[in-house]
Fold each of these.
Amino acid sequence: MKKYKVIIDKKKCFGCGTCQLASEKYFKLSDQDGLITIDNFEEKNGQLNGEINENELADFEKAAQSCPEGVIKIQK
């Protein structure tokens, strides 16, 4: 199954929650800082990094398109 790299720039996220509305299965807003968080993604230097598979791609694309700041990038 094909894998896709996802990079989320938390420094540009302002916690509006559109990603969570678009894909509650994966995207959540942190109770600590009110910004985006995803289980099993690594946070480093203000970015969340992780991999998704083909079955998750549509949900992540929907969330990425909903983000007004464009902080969700999917490398295909």
Amino acid sequence: MIKCDLFSSIPDWIIEHPRTATVFEQLGLDASCGGKSLEYLCLQQNLNPTTVLRRLEDAVRDGDGQVAESNYEAC
């Protein structure tokens, strides 16, 4: 298993941690990103990359993948 981080692509995250697919969908981050990094895509969507990373890590740890929209910060 690889360590996913801000420099990993969304497909890498989903392959390694399928539960994160729900988080990406809720945040409007497209899984067909052409290999661009999570950080780059967050910045393009005016999402705080560190906050998104925390939500993904929580989903992996907790297993439910649910993210309330009010819990993430814009850049």
